[in-house]
Predict the structure.
Amino acid sequence: MSSLVIDDLSIRFGGIKALDGLTLSVEPGQICGLIGPNGAGKTTLFNCVSRVYQPTSGTITWDGSDLLAVPAHGIARHGVSRTFQNLGLFPSMTFLENTMVGAHPYGRTGFVRSILSWGVRQEERRIRREAYELLEFLDLGHLAFEPAAGQPFGTLKRLELARALAARPRLLLLDEPAGGLTHAEVDELAETIRHVRDEKGLSVLLVEHHMGMVMGISDTVVAMNFGKKITEGTPAEVRRHPEVVSAYLGTRA
């Protein structure tokens, strides 16, 4: 299994230092929760790992390889997949079709073979079968042939997770997956994330404002503020840290 190692990572946007010498690691099979107030740099870190942003300095190593040498379009083939704060689904497409979109990094037919239809049908059947199995795994199989439009927000969050898993990741980046969910849906999502980690053998980096969820499912927690790491440790350790109480909860240490 693979580790994610982020070392002395910094990135500037003009005069603003969004990340400032950030160092952390995610061990194989861990759920690592990333917390901090708005503007702490959490999503910026995700965008660096997923190659949306190019850091000013520092390194990101995944599975022993330099992730910063990988172009954005090649990140999924290196076993890294992510969800986003805002849903990016295709409303008119079915649950099955939306999930199949996530498998595109593993298409093998190529342009010429696609034109000539060599192997296309066989590959499409394989992708369709795997996508349906993922929907079943996430209790969405009964919606496989229903359009995404008009479905409850919590259900669409699980669909986005299915699409991310279709890329066969070993590292899953979840960017505020509980945003907009009810308390019951948050509890259900927490169990789903644990189940995905255990059954798929993934490492998970989780950004989330819902403190109860983060503290309930994370093996380790990293607290950030102003692009820097305040502390890291077990959920119990981080919850008691004076700077976390002050910066994140807005009370005096």
